[in-house]
Amino acid sequence: MVCENINVNEKGNLAFAGFDTAELAAKHGTPLYLMDEDRIRHNCRIYLKAMAEAFGTEAQPLYASKAASFKRMYEIMKEEGMGIDVVSSGEIFTALKAGFDLKNAYFHSNNKTDWDIAYAIENGIGYFVVDNSEELYAINEAAAKAGIVQDILLRITPGIDTHTYEAVNTGKVDSKFGSAIATGQAEDMVRLTLSYEHIRLCGFHCHIGSQVFDSDTFLRGSDIMLDFIADMKSKLDFVTQQLDLGGGYGVRYVESDPTIDIAANIAQVAANVKAKCHCLGLDIPKILMEPGRSIVADAGMTLYTVGTVKTIPGYKNYVSIDGGMTDNPRFALYGSAYTVFVANKMNETADFVCSLVGRCCESGDIIQENITIPRPVRGDIAAVCTTGAYNYSMASNYNRIARPPIVMLSGGRDYVAVKRESLEDIAANDI
Ligand code: LLP
């Protein structure tokens, strides 16, 4: 199985986090997002332990909450001792609702509005991760107005190309994010920052890409960043306190995806950082990392009820479900691979080749193409694995379809963390 929390039970049904998924579908209805809370906590602890061991107890993983943002997630992050990466006032608002202390929050985004900046400052944001000079100016003004000195990191583009899909490849020089070292803009940003009275520069951030499997990505990234840090020390006498290496470790969506040993990888990055700092005569900065996908992806599963099963002779078979690109746009956007099961037919022969498609009025509304499953009939339960990251958070109401609820699974207990949208909810803002 793609993850160890997936099994087949004695009834021949798909089990997830020890629960019978067919029973969960009957109890909560479909479409249904499931989240294995124990797996989320397990994934957090891998980072917490590995980073503390490798970099010292000062090091801090930040959960990139864009991967799955709802109140319960921030409560779990608070309980686990994770920091958070937020990218909008909406994420900040949700974190506040969970009682998350924003001192431990880093506010990203390439275009924070003046309103966002004021809102974040008002609520005591720990750090802005500043993207550009206009934003720097706006933060300085807002901090002056609030009578504070605001801590920030600068987002730097190290100029690394990862071998991942284009939409999530962000570390290149040609990127809408950050300031590039190669063009001299990163250095300009440091000079500018140091000239502002109401801003304290604490260090630097880079994020190279997402769903990355190359084990040398973080090594190359940290090397380039440390060279830059040494350069800023010698040119500007600036001592970097924090280095945020971003997120990006890939997860297994299908059996053919590799498994990453995150703890071993972090240990390797730490050895490299220590050696490089020694070589450059630098004190090792406090290291931050920002995992999103690798915290929540394999904690998620989506259940659907099968509707129409259509065969076009000489072409292919279509299995339609009661959800689709509205709850999972990742195939439509990136052609992402997923593992699909018929949850109530796990012991039946998988010999039906088909596309699993959604219910939207759009041909591109596909969850997965060319899968082989037992031939399903109307009423069967389809399960799509590894949907914990960037599914709920990218869901939409296209075609005025309601978003599914999120049911958390923990220690044999299932509970609703996000309720199902109603038809009233969908039209709630219409005047
Ligand atoms: N830090 C920054 C600044 C980021 O931009 C991201 C992701 C992360 C951390 C977390 O990266 P992760 O560990 O999750 O790979 N919607 C796409 C993914 C977009 C990722 C955007 N940034 C998807 O569904 O695959």
Give a description of the structure.
The protein has helices at residues 21-28, 37-55, 71-80, 89-97, 114-122, 133-146, 185-195, 217-236, 262-280, 293-296, 330-334, 423-426, and strands spanning 6-8, 14-16, 19-20, 32-36, 60-64, 83-86, 105-107, 127-130, 150-157, 179-180, 199-205, 242-244, 286-289, 300-311, 317-321, 340-342, 352-357, 366-373, 381-385, 406-410, 413-418. It has 431 residues and is α/β, with parallel strands linked by helices. It folds into two domains: 6-36 and 298-426, Lyase, Ornithine Decarboxylase, Chain A, domain 1; 108-291, TIM Barrel. Strand 12, helix 9 and strand 13 (286-289) form a beta-alpha-beta unit. The site of ligand LLP has 19 residues, from helix 10.
